[in-house]
Design goal:
Layout (H helix, E strand, L loop, with lengths): L1 H13 L49 H8 L9 H13 L3 H9 L7 H16 L5 H21 L4 H14 L5 H21 L4 H15 L3 H10 L8 H14 L5 H13 L3 H13 L5 H16 L1
């Protein structure tokens, strides 16, 4: 029982929970925006704990006025698949969560993975809104997982289906207990790796996997020991491995995300490389502030620079 109690701290710190900003901090950059909540199952960055984050979608070429025209109707209508997906991606980039959900819900019985993973993402985003009550949040969390699961069943070569399956599986762990949550971490990593294999250019998948590695790398020895009481071989990683994924994400899309810059600085700090830590933390501090998440990253970067 004591082991489980201690391990609970570890789980709150190291498995996916949703990433930063209830209404949604967003990762800017091509093909990888993803909504976040308060800790992608890894905890809050602001408190120094690893926060396993995720991403936000592509900005469409549609003009602002075109979007305003879309808003004028209760439900966005489209003539064909491509148009629906374009509208869905734009609504997502504009954080119009409720309208996006209603649009995609019309395709809940679709056999097309492109509709299903987007519906999983929209359901998850809706569950993270601050005005969503606990019962509705749980319903949407499991609904999102089912859509992601179906997307994967329809097309197991779709990188986004693997990514959102991993994210949504992590979310369900919040309702299923510590043991299940830790056990799911193996599956989560497996699907993130598959997502990257299918699309090596997806910076957010690389970033998320880096977070996964960082979370388990920074786990204190005594918590590793406790985890081993429940799991003979608990998840492990190293800062070197985390660094590899953060650097790959940066190489794929330089400066795409303030938190990736921050995590590079924190990883170099953990590896006692002060010079490189200063470099990346300075870049994180100087990153333009567009979202609440950027503001939080800026604050933490300043605090860490003061420590150095």
């Amino acid at each position: 029982m004591m082991a489980r109690r201690v391990l609970t701290r570890f789980v709150n710190k190291s498995l996916l929970e949703a990433a930063v900003g209830a209404k949604g901090g967003r990762i800017r950059g091509s093909n990888r925006f993803f909504r976040t909540s308060a800790s992608w199952t890894v905890g809050a960055l602001g408190s120094g704990r690893a926060a396993f984050l995720l991403g936000l979608p592509v900005l469409s070429g549609l003009s602002y006025q075109a979007f305003r025209n879309l808003q004028s109707s209760a439900v966005v209508c489209a003539l064909d698949k491509d148009e629906v997906l374009e509208q869905a991606d734009y609504l997502y980039s504009c954080a119009d969560t409720e309208k996006l959900y209603q649009l995609l819900l019309q395709y809940k019985d679709s056999e097309d993975a492109e509709f299903l993973w987007r519906l999983a993402r929209a359901s998850r985003d809706l569950s993270l809104l601050p005005d969503t009550d606990a019962g509705r949040k749980k319903q949407l969390t499991f609904e999102a997982f089912e859509y992601a699961k179906r997307a994967l069943e329809r097309d197991d070569k779709c990188f986004a289906a693997h990514k959102w399956y991993a994210i949504c599986l992590s979310d369900t762990g919040e309702f299923e207990g510590v043991k299940v949550k830790i056990g799911n971490s193996y599956i989560i990593r497996e699907h993130l790796e598959r997502s990257i294999e299918l699309n090596p250019k997806d910076a957010t998948s690389l970033h998320i996997l880096g977070y996964w590695c960082f979370a388990f790398a920074e786990l204190p020895w005594y918590q590793r020991k406790v985890a081993a009481v429940i799991f003979s071989t608990p998840p492990t990683s190293t800062f070197e491995e985390a660094l590899e994924f953060f650097l790959k994400a940066e190489k794929v899309d330089p400066n795409f995300y303030s938190k990736n810059l921050l995590m590079l600085g924190k990883t170099y700090m953990a590896m006692n490389d002060k010079e490189k830590a200063l470099h990346w933390l300075t870049k994180a501090k100087e990153y333009p502030i567009h979202t609440l998440e950027d503001k939080e990253v800026h604050k933490e970067a300043v605090e860490l620079l003061n420590q150095l």
